[in-house]
Write a structure and sequence with these properties.
- Two copies of one chain form a homodimer.
- With 355 residues, the first copy, chain A, is α/β, with parallel strands linked by helices.
- Chain A folds into two domains: 215 residues, Isopropylmalate Dehydrogenase (3-Layer(aba) Sandwich); 124 residues, 3-Layer(aba) Sandwich (Isopropylmalate Dehydrogenase).
- Chain A is built from twelve helices and 14 strands.
- In chain A, strand 6 and strand 7 form a beta hairpin.
- In chain A, helix 8 runs parallel beside helix 9, helix 10 runs antiparallel to helix 11 and helix 11 crosses helix 12.
- The longest helix of chain A is centred in the first third of the chain and has 19 residues.
- Chain A is globular and about 55 Å long.
- At the A-B interface, strand 6, strand 7, helix 7, helix 8 and helix 9 of A face strand 6, strand 7, helix 7, helix 8 and helix 9 of B.
- Bound molecules: 3-isopropylmalic acid (2 copies).
- One 3-isopropylmalic acid sits at the interface of chains A and B.
- Chains A, B: It holds the Pfam family Iso_dh.
- Chains A, B: Its main location: cytoplasm.
- Chains A, B: It is an enzyme of class 1 (oxidoreductase).
């Protein structure tokens, strides 16, 4: 197959980790006989500096002409005092909205060996394997009115029934491919939008009699993620709850540096990026963990290109490197050898070529 | 001194734990020569059953004529399918709003011995000592428009500058009495209300040059509560973020069953209640942990009545009972003897009388 990928390295370690991810992608191309064309564009702080906009029109055009997007990370101290339309994360919000990337998928899985890096007890996290499905283009992020005066401010949490339906269906579909359980998170005891959310979930459930469903209030969910994280299979929730809970979930297994994410559209087009940020403090030093970006490529192959085997190859290669006792500086553990970004990447490629 | 207290036991274990708390209150009265008058009223499910309203007018009158309110817990499966105006938690929301109880204070502190019940590693939680200050009468909970149709729903996150100012001041004042640090949590990279929030916090900071301040985005805060909870002293945030983060924080030290809370008004009038819920599954069995309700009484003495010594006596008594190796069934640990609700209460009173 032939695919064109828009690569937006962004800021900080975004550059190094996408470079690693692309090396792995090309290794997959060689091994499975695919051609991946790569076009690089600007986003975030870099785009502000060079083009005066966090998501320049050139970048949008580049993405329009691609089959998927790979993103590094955006942001950095340098732009933190900018007016809000000139902030790096505006690029991220704008690209999600422009391409209607409504479904944000965030897998969190305990990796044997690595879980000793977790702040939680091994027993609590050892069988964690969940997928958080966050609605990404609605709710408080985009609702109008949204304004501030000297004396007050307002944001609006608005959802249409269709917006809820499509993300909830996505969650049920994903659950069928996993352990068959959906936990829907809302605040139905307070919010009208959550009441509608719960209603839609109940109604969609009728189409999925084989999937188990439960509802959890967002405050209870924030507790259960800590006290009993292995109870979750697929978690589905609205945009802001998803922002909070997926970040909370990302630290429980001690493997933040290796968590990928996908933000996809109804037709399978998607944007793939590591969960971690741009980490300007370690940028350019060869210290960054490329695993999250590499695993984001695996998600791209699986969710946008239907290349399941290729995706599994990458995942297995990454996990093998850990099993062989290698890690990067963010996951230092007893008995592990710490590798640089490029050394780690080479090990992954070696594994891929050996498989 | 003479004080009148409105006691609203509510549902489930609310009844047993307020009974315990009142016994301790009377012991304090004997010891320090105060007279505490107690008037009992209905709230929540019980009030719905007996009066057809989760917060009957009688109860409001009773509270109006009191110096403070002690609440047990509300809710239970029995009322879960009720229409929303006949749900127990509506009583809680209504009483907060009616009495303008804008400042919700939730201390979370690691208790030596007890932290082995934590899902987190001892090292991570052993020096946790924070106070979450949650705005309680604004934001998405009460903003208009707030409505649902078949095709969509809307909630409104609205804050006036004054609403933000008073809670932020409260946080700075509390920090002065503690370790002198405030962490303000918002989502200023996305929400207009958070931009105003941050602006107000910065401006108030000028009045408190002695207090250290930092800002954290809500998603980052959800992570830090797990990876580095001891970095927090006073955490201040808006209503819904506070709901989520305070519940998250409540499980990190393994001592949910002993966490109290205060919801106070500008003049010091307040409502005091355990953080835990009504736990209908264990109600009436003598299994409930009364510590949270007892420590809520301590907060009442401190924050509403200015009885600092009396409050400390209660806290010390409760902690001594744990130190002596007793606990309730929710905190079972190696080497601890499990007591019933009333046995635990008796131990606390014995300690109080011995001090
Ligand atoms: C940078 C920010 C706007 C963004 C969000 O809140 O969605 C980020 O936290 C994320 O989760 O991707
Ligand atoms: C019962 C519910 C409405 C309430 C809230 O969301 O405020 C509860 O979760 C709390 O934190 O006191």
């Amino acid at each position: 197959m032939e695919k064109t990928i828009a690569v937006l390295p962004g800021d900080g370690i975004g550059k190094e980790v996408t470079e690693s991810a692309l090396k792995v992608l090309q290794a997959i191309g060689r091994r499975y006989n695919h051609r991946y064309h790569v076009n690089t564009g600007l986003i975030g702080g870099d785009a502000i500096d060079q083009k005066g906009h966090p998501l320049p029109q050139d970048t949008i055009d580049l993405c329009e002409n691609s089959d998927a997007i790979l993103l590094g990370a955006v942001g950095g101290l340098k732009w933190d005092q900018n007016p809000s339309h000139l902030r790096p994360e505006k690029g991220l919000l704008a690209i999600r909205k422009h391409f209607d990337l409504f479904a944000n998928l965030r897998p969190v899985k305990a990796i044997p060996g690595i879980i000793s890096a977790s702040p939680l007890k091994e027993d609590v996290v050892k069988s964690v394997d969940m997928m958080i499905v966050r609605e990404l283009t609605g709710g408080l992020y985009f609702g109008e009115p949204k304004r501030k005066t000297d004396n007050g401010a307002v944001d609006t949490l608005v959802y249409s029934r269709e917006e809820i339906e499509r993300i909830v269906e996505k969650a049920f579909e994903l659950a069928r491919l996993r352990r068959g359980k959906v936990t829907s998170v809302d605040k139905a005891n307070v919010l009208e939008s959550s009441k509608l959310w719960r209603e839609v979930v109940e109604q969609k459930k009728l189409k999925y009699p084989d999937v188990e469903l439960d509802h959890l209030l967002v405050d209870a969910a924030a507790m259960k993620l800590i006290t009993n994280p292995s109870m979750f299979d697929v978690v589905v929730t609205e945009n802001l709850f998803g922002d909070i809970l997926s970040d909370e979930a990302s630290v429980i297994t001690g493997s933040l540096g290796m968590l990928p994410s996908a933000s996809i559209r109804a037709d399978g087009f998607g944007l793939y990026e590591p969960v971690h940020g741009s980490a300007p403090d370690i940028a350019g030093k060869g210290l960054a963990n490329p695993a999250a970006a590499i695993l984001s490529v695996a998600m791209m192959l699986k969710y946008s290109f239907g290349m399941e085997t290729e995706a599994s190859s990458i995942e297995e290669a990454v996990f093998s490197v850990y099993e062989d006792g290698y890690c990067t500086s963010d996951m230092k553990q007893d008995g592990y050898r710490v590798l640089s970004t490029s050394e780690f990447t080479e090990k992954v490629i070696e594994e891929l070529e050996r498989e």
